[in-house]
Amino acid sequence: MDLQIALLLGQDGITNGAIYALLALALVLIFAVTRVIYIPQGEFVAFGALTLASLQAGKTPGTLWLLLGAGVAIALIDGVLALRAGALRRLPRVFLWNLAYPLAAAALVFFGKPATLPMAAQILISLALVVPLGPMIYRLAYQPLAEASVLVLLIVSVAVHLALVGLGLLFFGAEGSRTPPFSDASFDLGSIRVTGQTLWVLVSSSLLIVALYVFFDRTLYGKALRATAINRVGARLMGISTIMAGKLSFLLAALIGAFSGILIAPITTIYYDTGFLIGLKGFVAAIVGGLTSYPIAAAGAILVGLLESYSSFWASAFKEVIVFTLIIPVLVWRSLTTHHVEEEE
Amino acid sequence: MMRRQTVILAGFLLLLALAPRLLPEFYVTLLNYIGLYAIVALGLVLLTGVGGLTSFGQAAFVGLGAYTTAYLTTATALPGWLAPFGASPWLALLAGLALTAVVALVLGALTLRLSGHYLPLGTIAWGISLYFLFGNIEQLGGHTGITGIPPLSVFGLEVKFGREFYYLIWVLLMLTVWLTQNLLDSREGRAIRALKGGSLMAEAMGVDTARSKTVIFLIAALFACLSGWLYAHLQRFVNPTPFGLHIGIEYLFMAVLGGAAHVWGALIGAGVITVLKQWLQDLLPKLFGSSGNFEMIVFGLLMVLMLQRARDGLWPILARLDSGNGSDGTRAAPQAEPMPKKSLPASGTRLLEVNDLTKKFGGLVASDKMNLWLQSGEVLALIGPNGAGKSTVFNCISGVDPATSGEIRFLDERIEKLRSREIARRGMSRTFQHVRLLPTMSVLENVAIGAHLRGRKGVISALLHLERAEERRLMAEAARQIERVGLGEHMFDQAGSLPLGQQRILEIARALAADPCLLLLDEPAAGLRYLEKQALAELLRKLRSEGMAILLVEHDVEFVMGLADRVVVMEFGEKIAEGLPEQVRQDPAVLEAYLGGVA
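YS: structure for the whole thing
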């Protein structure tokens, strides 16, 4: 391996690492606030990328059907609950977000001719379709089990993951997609060439991380989420709705996931099931941070990215074996260093 | 009751035996797969449902079994030391089981110490690693796999067709069911079932929880390996696909759907998922007009719904149909020759001596140079206001939370460095401030956990039920302790159905079953009503008169004053008074601690 290859692999590793870092942040956020180990995070990566690809190809993205279907299901459940409780005031809000919004999105997809719009608009439409799925999944799958043990929530996560991967295959087929890069510019940095897309990935992940930092540190909602993460009961006593906190964290995670997918779609071909492995690598990073520390998770993510890219050079067939075997010593270390309160059934 | 269950079981076995004669080929094949999957799911029932350890990685162990036999029975140039194992699939099975055992022990040593959710994440990690390993090792045929695996033969007869294989699979499945049921209904099995109640209680009763976890992990892995071996010889070829993480997830779904805490749940779960999968794979592509893994969507949704609505799975629902299931008061208490008892030390012997015991939590000194001693046939009460450090001292003595410094002597032996189960073995037994029982187990079985250290027979004899004589004596001993504390009429009730007062008494019976000479009781009167307190005091007096030493941590001064021989008072981690109850009651320092100073 000469220096040039080493640098190239390093660049690859850091680019992937940046994506893993974003996903790791989302996973830490969700776990801290809701105790859910969010295996389906990777599916949002694939959904984001493939929705954008469908729009660009002039097809109707299947995620639209999912948005409509989940909306109808929630409108029915929450509608009946509101009627039973006699709280008719809640109905307009339920119908606005779960029926009117998906219908508006559908109108935009069908009549807005998204294939002809500029790329920025296509990205916005993709996000508008995929991101609301986050809180919807929270409402349907997790909210009824909010007080269950971490293990039950984990099994739910695995089940949701299975369902979403199956839906992904149904919506987008088995063929992969790649989207055009955000810009064709590229720069020569010494002996290696840095593409515009790589810069996009690095710059926008850094911006997103800073934005998250500001959100958690400076805004009321961010502080509410942190409070919920530290002490659910205490937060509730202070008037913070844990349901709101759950939905908000799932919304942010979905935004991060879908946007990550859109960022890497020009670099790698995304298949309906690609998200899982990407998400799991984000996971390895999140676990390095003990599922609680944002900065350590981000550093872990870069490490995973680099490890993966260098091991793909030396032993490409065993790349995944190496990355996932690495997690076991990390788990042992984490398990020994974190004080664990015994959870009883 | 037992009769009816026997009839149902006999009918079920008869149907199983006749099935291949009556059913068309297609259904026999389906039943073959159900049997194969059920063997794996059964391991998960033991591991996850009973032991509380979630694994998504069982498919990898199935793969180990399948690939070992595939490699050994097809390779043309085996290295010399391996060659004998290639001679017959049965020898290859032995090799596979041995390999799986080694891999499971290594993985178990690494991952079983992981706490809480780290363990299932760990199983996902090695599940994926092993899957990619199968697909990338050249000798194992890469992603195309290995073909031309020879058929099995049993007593010289080739088992080639599905109908013949059926009997092999289901006989082996019934064998694993029998072994699992035997194990669960034994001393080792109770230790395994105690894992779910948290390792604190199990360890305090002398259970080596790390060992129990390893045992069930190993058994689950070996069952999976057996299933893989059968699979390889049924299919006659293997490739990595059926050993991936998604199949591992499916196995877990089978166990959860069927009822993860019940042996028969594994069969129900495997049956429902396999039939549903088959049916969905036929139906859904027609519905959607294209091919794909649509059954995954349904399974995912089904699982979420299941966990929201019926978390205990299908088996308990089915079992409820068989009405009248439960305790019937007519059962007789188990009788057997008594277990050997340690002789109690002579009255007045010093049992326990605590010198300069200090415990720090970071900067907080919870116990500062505490001293106390206790002799046999004596009740010593340790009292003090909230947060005085009583429970800390208690946990140091019983080995739950080791002391920072100081010396603890029990029967002339230093014990401050020992673990709680080693201390329990030396004749000290405790109860818990927050009752720690296994609510779905009977009172009798709960108390029998206390007698864990008095049995000797291990896992192998438990699997084969060769330990029945000892088991009868253990159960009789537990029954005797239940009678001793006056809970005889509740012996076969579920522990969780008793009121709190009786649950505390039950904890004392469990502690007594260990044959201790020193009882540690952590706030036994908390939450009890007046009459219950009197009954408890009566019981403790009776135990004292039999020569038992009792160390009592208590809040309730009234209760203590009428019972204790001596009292030690703590405040802010220090001893502020010691003496006879009447002396302590008048001690100015004590009055100040409790009443905030006398003007």
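YS: worth flagging: Chain A touches chain B through 49 residues (CB under 8 Å).
IM: good catch. Also Chain A has one domain: 3-337.
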